[in-house]
Amino acid sequence: MARSPVLDGDGDVVWPKRSSWSQRATAHVADLQGQINRLRSQVTAADPADAELIAKAEAHLASARHSLKYKGRWWRFDRTTDGALANLHEAEVALLRIVPAGELRWRGVPVLAQARLHLDPDDLRLQHLEEQLKPQGTQVTHIQEVDRELLVSTLHAAYQAEEAERARVRSFTRIVCGATTAMALIAVGFAMWALVEPAVGRRFCFPENPDDPDAVPTVCPFGDEPSWSSVWFIEFVGMTGAAVAGAASLRQVRGTAGPYHVAMALLLLRLPVGALTAVIGLLFLSGRFFPGLTGLDTPTQIISWAVAFGILQEVVTRSVDRQGEFLLENVRTAGRDPEVKPERKRRRFAKPPPKDT
To answer: Angle between the 314-329 and 228-249 helix axes, to the nearest 10 degrees?
Structure first.
C-alpha cells in the first residue's frame, strides 16, 4: 500500500495513516470543495456578496484541512478534531446561503432531519421549518427563496448543538484521563513511600493470632518479613483484578464513530483505581475494620483479598461508565434515535382474578 497521500487537484481525498474519523472528514472536505468549484463558475463579478461567501467557505475548508493534517502532540488531537468539525459545518452553512434557488427547494428535508436530531422539539426555528415543509394535501412543499434565511439559521443552530454535544464528550474524556493520571500518581507515590519507609510494609502483614493485641505480624504477602516489595505487589495484583473486571465489562461496550476514545479512557481508569482499592482494602483488614476478617493465615489469602478488592473497584467505576454511556448516547447521528434507551425487561405478573362479592 502506498504511504504517500492520494490527492486530487485540491489536495483532498485520502491521507494514509490517519484515523477512520479523519478519513471520513477528509472525504467530506473533498465533497464540499467540489460543490464550491461548481458554484464558483456560476458566481459572476456582479455578485460580490456570493463571491465573498465562496471565499469564506474555502477559508473554512483550508482550516479544516490544516486540522486534519495535524501531527502534533496526541493530547491536542481532540481539539483539532473539534476545529475541523466546526469549520466543516460553517462551510456547509456558507454554501447554503449561495446555492441557486433551483437547488434550494430540495435542501429543506436534509436540514429538517439534521435539526430534528440536535434541536429541542420546542425550538421555534424547527417548528417554523416543519410548518413550511408540511405537505399540502397531495402536494409536496419545497423551500422557497424567501425561506432561505430560516433554512440557514436552522442548520446553523443544529450544527452548534451537535458541536456542544461532542464538546461534552471531549470534556468528559479529558476529565477521565486527568483522574486516571491523578490516581496513578497517588498509587506510585504510596509505593515510593513504602520504598523509603520500610515500616509501611508492616501494615500489610497479619499476626498468626489475631486475638492477641500484642502479637507481632508474621504473615506477610512475601513470607514472614515485611518489605517494600510487598506493597508494589499488592498494587500490581489489584490492577490485575481491575483489568479482569474491565475485560468482563467489555461486553457492554459499544463502538463509536466519533474521534473520542471514551471506552478506552474508562478501561484505563480502572487500573490505578484497582491498585488503590487493593491497598485501602488490606489496610482496613489490618486495622480490624471488618469484624471477623481480622486474621489472614497465609500469604495466598492476603494476595487473594488484594485481587478481590481490585475487582471491587467496579462499584466506583461503574457509575462513571454510565455517565460516559449517557454522553455518547446524546451524540446523535442519523439512522438511530438516541432518546430511546434500552430498558431492562421486567417480569410481569398476571393480576389476580377479582374476588367474588
So the answer is: 40
The CA dihedral of 138, 140, 146, 149, to the nearest 10 degrees, is 140
Under 8 Å between Cβ of 323 and 172:
yes
Kind and range of the H or E run holding 189 = helix 148-196
Predicted TM-score of the model (pTM) = 0.72
Q: Tally Cβ neighbours within 10 Å of residue 314.
A: 20
| Contact call for residues 145 and 79 (beta carbons, < 8 A) | no
Under a CB-based contact definition with an 8 Å cutoff, are residues 11 and 65 in contact? yes
Encode pLDDT of 38-69 as tens digits: 888 776 655 777 888 888 888 998 888 888 77
Digit-coded pLDDT (tens) for 198-256: 777 777 777 766 565 555 557 777 766 777 788 888 899 999 999 988 887 777 666 66
How far apart are the C-alpha atoms of 302 and 295, rounded to whole Å?
A: 10
Q: Are 193 and 200 in contact (CB under 8 A)?
A: yes
Q: What is the dihedral of CA 346, 347, 349, 350, to 10 degrees?
A: 90
Which amino acid makes up residue 155? L
The residue with cell 475548508 is 61
In the block, cell 443544529 appears at: 158
Assess whether pLDDT exceeds 90 at residue 263: no
Q: Which of the 8 DSSP states describes residue 224?
A: S
Q: What's the alpha-carbon Rg for the chain, to the nearest Å?
A: 30
